[in-house]
Amino acid sequence: MTEAKSKSNPASRGVMRWHLGLHIAGVLVLAVAAGITVLGLLWLMLGAPRVQATGPLKPSDAYDAIKIALAVVAGIGGVVALVVAYRRQHLSEATDAREYDKALIERFGAAAEQLGAEQPAVRMAGGYAMARLADEWPQERQMCIDVLCGYLRMPHAPDPPADDQALASWQREREVRVTVLGLIAAHLRDGAPASWQGHDLDFTGAVLDEAGFRGARFTGGDILFVKTLFAGHGTDQFVFDEADFAEGCHIYFRLAEFRSGTVRFNRATFSGGWVTFDHARFTGAHVTFRDAAFTAGEVPFEGAEFSDGTVDFTGATFTGSTVNFGEHHLPSIYRTAPPAHFGGGTVDLSQVADFTLPPRFGLQEPPPGLRLPEDTNVSELP
Question: Is the pLDDT confidence value at 187 over 90?
């Protein structure tokens, strides 16, 4: 961390590497060279006049020579004073930068300690402190984001316990986690005071029961929901409405489980990113892509398992994205990715608004639970 910080903040590297005498000599050489260059240019502009001797030196000539010598000495003194003042200023700035970095590091330690506290209120305050620090410390913003995501990856029971005391503790922890996730989502929207768009987010293995990513823009980086459990308790628990999955982003819902609640991608735009649901399990949640626009990029559902719940594409438009539920041949050591398995859930494409570039299924017969637009033969689809 220290090395990365010193690279990104030159003023924090310390004092000048040159010795004072060498520094002065170098500046004098540059000054002399600049003076000779200026005199040469003036001489050329005046037509290269010849200097003619007019006789023996007069006393006034000696006085003029003394004045020139004194001016040169004064110039040298001025150069030395400027060099010393510059080095003093540089040292002051370097000291200030080190003190500022030290204060940021101390704030980071304090926020991390708060996130590990026993009291939920203190943990929540730690989340706000870490987010504020990420805003003010762009050189280490990713590190602060990683800590917040790491907190969400800590073990958390997906279902509320029956015991009253344990239930109260579970609910308090849930509020902390919802707050932390809300802080992350707020920084992914346009107009955020400090944008975290383009940064990596790692929710691998996290247990989430509420997430509000409405209006978020995913413009780059790796967003990992790998093996994440979406265990909503109620409706509209996970909201990606109006989100934009733009070119450059890679979002992995790989091996994620959508167990309960509602997961909404309504009016979301898939405009060039790579958003994969491969081998995800839809085991009870109601997942909606109503009025979503699939205009570019890839959205694979290879190997996904639909055993319960509903995936609803009402009003969606398929005009450019490659949406694949079928078998996919892969390069390298992986030969194929198996097709999606329909074992009881419902995937409803019957009310889509535009089927210009329909999803790929690679099926001859429609499996139970797959609903297609009227007069659409699954065997004729890609």
Answer: yes
Distance, in Å, from the CA atom of 299 to the CA atom of 285, rounded to the nearest integer, reads 19
pLDDT digit string, tens, across residues 219-237? 999 999 999 999 887 666 8
CA–CA distance, 185 with 175 (Å, rounded to integer): 15
Amino acid (1-letter code) at residue 261? G
Residues facing 312 on adjacent strands: 288, 348
Q: What is the pLDDT of residue 126?
A: 96
Structure tokens at 344: 């009881």
Of residues 238, 234, 279, 231, the one with CA closest to residue 258: 231
Task: Give the residue from 333, 321, 317, 305 showing the smallest Cα distance to 360.
Answer: 321
Share of the chain above pLDDT 70, in %: 75
Q: How far apart are CA 336 and CA 323, in angstroms?
A: 16
Kindly report, residue by residue over 52-73, the tens digit of the pLDDT.
Answer: 556 565 666 566 666 666 666 6
Phi, psi angle pair for 333, to nearest 5° = -80, -15
99, with CB counted inside 10 A (0-12, 13-18, 19+), is exposed
Q: In the numeric block, which tokens belong to residue 350?
A: 């019957």
Dihedral sign for Cα atoms in the order 135, 141, 142, 146: negative
Task: Compute the CA torsion angle 146, 151, 152, 156 (nearest 10 deg).
Answer: 160
DSSP lists the bridge partners of residue 110 as none
pLDDT in tens, 302-326: 999 999 889 999 999 999 999 999 8
**Average pLDDT along the chain:** 84
What is the per-residue DSSP string for 124-171?
A: HHHHHHHHHHHHH-GGGHHHHHHHHHHHHTS---SS--SSHHHHHHHH
DSSP 10: G
What's 332's DSSP letter?
A: T
> pLDDT category, 3, cuts 50, 70, 90?
very low
Provide CB contacts within 8 A for 276, sequence distance 6+: 251, 252, 253, 254, 298, 299, 300
Per-residue confidence (pLDDT) for residue 63, from 0 to 100: 66
Helix (H) or strand (E) holding 173: helix 164-186
Rounded Cα–Cα distance for residues 356 and 274 (Å): 20
**Shortest CA distance to 294 belongs to which of 335, 324, 260?**
324
